[in-house]
UniProtKB/TrEMBL annotation:
Coiled coil: none
Domain 4Fe-4S ferredoxin-type: 297-328
Highest taxon of source: Bacteria
UniProt name for this protein: 4Fe-4S ferredoxin-type domain-containing protein
InterPro entries hit by this protein: 4Fe4S_Fe-S-bd, 4Fe4S_Fe_S_CS
SUPFAM superfamilies cross-referenced by the UniProt entry: 4Fe-4S ferredoxins
Source taxonomy: Bacteria, Bacillati, Bacillota, Clostridia, Eubacteriales
Gene3D superfamilies per record: 3.30.70.20
């Protein structure tokens, strides 16, 4: 039945797009962009309900973020009250209907997929199936019953979940508490558990090697679809171990970078995403909220920010200037703020730009080699416990230590 449904949809999509040309859509997109930029640039999280009452939310993840030295936040109390949540509003306005006008957003992606993969539904099919299931789960509909026998050894359970997720292609995994300051407006009520498993799906290097003119597969959409295809399998595995859980998508309702950094997967990159030693920035994230108190992973210093501060290749090469040169103070928080609207434009009108990923040494060369290229005295963060201050101070500035 499912297959018939999607075969029919595929025919309709392909027919509808027969006369649409990608370049024409790009032109239309450019016409509308000014309005879109205006609409995306000013999203805030206020925890007020529609009646104007202040909503008080439990926020167990706050302590983790507050004590995490790798999140670059100051004056966190103010940040609590008014969070600036770019680049991920619930749904980017360019993908919504704008003032009664018919949006071309969805066709845009469909046409791109068709031209690259030969099938408008190539990625959409799995994305739609997954999204439908996630939306239903969020409303408490069609959630499979967890097994009656509950795995009580939570260390073992976590290990098994990670091993299973890895076998499905997830490269980076970690557990932390939800910090609701990084949950988008209107999504709070769907986040019914406080423990969150972060899952990072890899964009293979071989796929990125085909850019800037990808053929056959797309890096970002491939990884988003990897999340869509596999996140429910991990959730069902958790249920088979007797625990309740909810899959969450890649759409931005939960901002994953701070959670991934809190879960010790990696550190912030220059453009705000979490760089991991396993795959650099070649990851797209999804998550699972779980009722079990799995052992939490701790934030960890991989010395990545040190390397980034000497690299900044992504910032220098971003064609839309969406990656900021400096951190900025915003509503009490010091943060890097990638301009979502500028990036989205290039990610669609240039068939997934991904230049920031393609120039990143962590993504393309590997963590070990990046670290080897850092002079030893910039490596102190990693050896902070056995830091030989006397030895380091005996060296002149700029002197390399063999
Ligand atoms: S390109 Fe350079 S600065 Fe940017 S994330 Fe990668 S290592 Fe960091
Ligand atoms: S994908 Fe392209 S436009 Fe977007 S931030 Fe990266 S380099 Fe800039």
């Amino acid at each position: 039945m499912e297959n018939i449904k999607y075969e029919v949809m595929k025919k309709i999509m392909n027919k509808k797009m027969k006369n649409l040309k990608y370049d024409d859509l790009v032109k239309e997109w450019n016409k509308e962009k000014r309005q879109m930029i205006k609409e995306t640039s000013d999203h805030r999280i206020y925890r007020w309900d529609p009646e104007g009452m202040y909503k008080i939310l439990e926020n167990t993840g706050k302590v983790i973020t507050d004590t995490n030295p790798y999140v670059n936040l100051v004056d966190i109390e103010e940040f609590d009250l008014v969070i600036e949540n770019e680049p991920y509003p619930v749904a980017p306005p360019p993908m919504n209907k704008v003032k009664g006008k018919k949006s071309k957003g969805a066709s845009f992606f469909g046409v791109m997929h068709k031209e690259i993969t030969g099938d408008a539904m190539y990625y959409m099919k799995d994305q739609m199936i997954s999204m439908e299931r996630i939306n239903k789960e969020a409303q408490g509909i069609n959630i499979p019953e967890p097994n009656k026998e509950k795995e009580k050894d939570l260390i073992k359970l976590k290990k098994e979940i990670f091993e299973y997720a890895k076998s499905l292609g997830f490269a980076s995994m970690g557990v932390t508490k939800v910090d609701r300051r990084y949950v988008s407006m209107g999504v709070d009520d769907e986040i019914i558990f406080d423990n969150i498993i972060l899952l990072g799906y890899e964009m293979p290097k071989e796929v990125l090697d085909n850019y800037p003119k990808p053929k056959g597969e797309l890096g970002a959409f491939g990884a988003y679809t990897g999340c869509a295809r596999n996140v429910h399998k991990v959730a069902d595995f958790i249920r088979s171990k007797g625990h309740d859980c909810r899959s969450r998508d890649w759409g931005g309702g939960i901002k994953y970078s701070p959670h991934a950094v809190n879960a010790g997967l990696g550190n912030y990159s220059t453009y705000g995403v979490c760089v991991t030693p396993e795959a650099g920035t070649r990851l797209k994230y999804c998550s699972i909220l779980i009722d079990a108190d799995l052992p939490l992973d701790k934030p960890k210093d991989f010395n990545i920010e040190e390397f980034c501060s000497r690299c900044r290749m992504c910032q220098k090469s971003c064609p839309s200037n969406s990656i900021p040169k400096e951190e900025k103070q915003y509503k009490g928080a010091v943060k890097r703020q990638t301009r979502f609207s500028g990036c989205l434009e290039l990610m669609t009108t240039s068939r997934e730009c991904l230049k920031c990923v393609r120039v990143c040494p962590f993504s393309m060369i590997g963590y070990e080699q990046c670290m080897e290229s850092l002079p030893q005295y910039y490596m102190y963060n990693l050896q902070i416990d056995e830091l030989d201050k006397e030895f380091l101070l005996s060296k002149k500035e700029g002197e390399y230590i063999e």
